[in-house]
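SAMPLE LOG
Freezer: B-3
Tube label: C17
Construct: single chain, 434 aa
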Amino acid sequence: MRRYPAFALAMVLLASGCRKETVSNTTALSATASPATATSGTTSELVPAAASESEPSLVSYSAGALLVQKPPEYGSTWQALWILDERSDTGYATPENTVTPQTFVVEMPERSILEKVIFDNAGTEQEGRSAREVSVEVSDTSPLSGFQKIADVTLAEAADNQAFPVASRVPGRWVRLTLKNNYGSSQFTELMDFRATGRQLTHTPFQNVSGTYATDYGNFHVRQEGNSVSGCYEYSQGLLSGGVDGRIMKFTWSEGKDKGGPAIMVFTSDGQQMVGLWWFAGQTNVTPGAWNGKKTSTEVGGCPQWSGSAQTQLASELKQAGHATIYGINFDTDSDQIRPESKSTLDQIVAVLKENPEWQMTIAGHTDSTSTPEHNKDLSERRAIAVKSYLQNAGVDGDHLSTIGYGAEKPLATNDTSIGRAQNRRVELIREPG
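STRUCTURE (predicted):
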C-alpha cells in the first residue's frame, strides 16, 4: 500500500500539534459523553441512542450507504466520508474560515423509512466548532430534488449519542443533511458522526462486480464467483480475497507474506464506482486509508501474481501460507444456518480439498463481540460444524476435518464499529502441518 496512508498522516499531525492543512473539495459523486440538554424544532426531545446491532444505521458506510454530494472539506483527515463510519473520533470539518451552511446527500442502499437520527460531536477539537442546528430531509425522487423535511434538531455542544425521533416518516432513498451553524466559531464547523435507524423497504439483488477498476493503487482486477471474490491490484503486486454481500465487498489484501490487512468497499448503485477503506492487520482502531476506484472495463484482466480464480487462489493460500480467511460463507443472524448464496464459496473449498485429500484441515469460526463470550464461542463452534457438515456431505473426508470456535477472541478489526464487526464475522481454514 502507500508509504503514507491517511491514518499515518493523522498521527503525524497530532504529534506535531498542527491543526489542519486546508484543502477545499467541491461537490462530487462519489470519547463518549452523555448529551447535555438539547432542543429541536420539528423534532421532540432526545431519545436513547440505537444499539448498533439491534437497530443498525441505514445511512452508514457499513450498511452500504454512500455520499453522493459532499460540501467543501478540510482535507483527508477531516473529510465528509468520516461522518458515515460510525466512529466518534473521526469526523468532518469545513475549510478554515468557512462556517456557512454545509450540505451532504447520502444514498441509502435501499428505499427505507427513517425513524430516528443520531449525532456524535464530543470529538470536535475546540469549543464553538460543534455543529448546532441541523436539518434532515428525505427524497424518493433523486439526489437532487424531491426532498421532504423529517427533522430539525439542535445539537448539544460536544456530546455523543444525541438521538432524536423524526417528525415525519417519509419513504425514500436519499437523505440530505444540512449543518446550518455552529456554537460560535468563526473558523470551522465540525460533525463527527451521523447515523439513522428505521426500516428498509426493499431488498434488490446487486449485479456482479467483476471487472477492472482504476484505483488509488493502480488497476484493480476482481472476479466475483457466486458471492466469493478474488483478484489483484497492480501496486506492490497485491492480492485480495473475500466476499460480496449486496453492495458491500469485504476482503483481505496482501503484499507478500508479511504485509496485509482487512478492507471493505461499497459500490455505487450502478456498480461503476467503489469507495473503500483499508487497514494494516492489527491496526484497525486507527483512521483507515482510502481506496477508491472507477470501473473501466467489464473484462477482469489480471496480474502476474494472480491465478485468475477464487478456487486457485484459495489453494495457493493454503499451500503457501497454511491458512485462508473466508468471507463468502454467510449465516443467518445469530444462527448456524448457512445462507444459500454461500454455496459457490463452499463448493470451491470442496474442490480444493478433493484435489488435496491428504490435507488435515481445521475449520475455525469467528464472531464479533456483540453477545457474551460464552454465547459467541458456542455460536462460532456451531458455525464451524455447519461448514464441516457441508463439506462432508459433498464428499470431503470428515476424518481430515476438525472444528474450533474462537468467538470474538481473535478479531481482525475493531469491534467498536459496524464495519469492524462485519470484518470479524468470518470462517478461517487452517492447514495443519504434516
